[in-house]
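Hi all, long-time lurker, first post. I run a small reading group and we've been trying to get comfortable going from sequence to structure in the token notation. Rather than ask abstract questions, I figured I'd post a concrete chain and ask someone more experienced to write out its structure so we can walk through it together at our next meeting. Sequence below, copied exactly:
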Amino acid sequence: MAIYTISGTITHVSPIVTITTRSGEPLSKRTVVITQRRFNPTSGEEYRPNHIPIEATKTFCQVIDNFPAGTPVRVTFALNGREWADQRTGEIRYFVSLLLTSIERDETAAAHVEKAQTQAVVSQQPNGAYTAGHATPADDGLPF
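-- Answer (accepted) --
Happy to help. Here is the structure in token form:
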């Protein structure tokens, strides 16, 4: 299981849903959407925000009530993958979920956004490729 931390703004919180697990135990869960603002590395203009749905389970369902939409947060989540086999057809499918492990207010989020806008520096590499000073693999400008 991999653990990651991101910062962004809460843009949506779903209602709490209770499901029954395979063992018959009830499990409460809800989804919180964290939106990261993204900027064009050459112009600094904002484009295509990154909306990341993260699942909150058990006691985190109530903790999320302390973070209404519009709150800048820093969240830590576990990246989980699982396999599922359809008993009727035998088809195997794979699913990925992001499971909330911690959440806190991020008062410096606005400062990070302004810093990203001002650090949009593009440089040409010896091999002819262009790179942005603050671009990351997740911010490669592709729509997918």
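A couple of things your group might point at:
The longest strand covers residues 26-39.
Residues 116-124, 128-139 have pLDDT under 50 and may be disordered.
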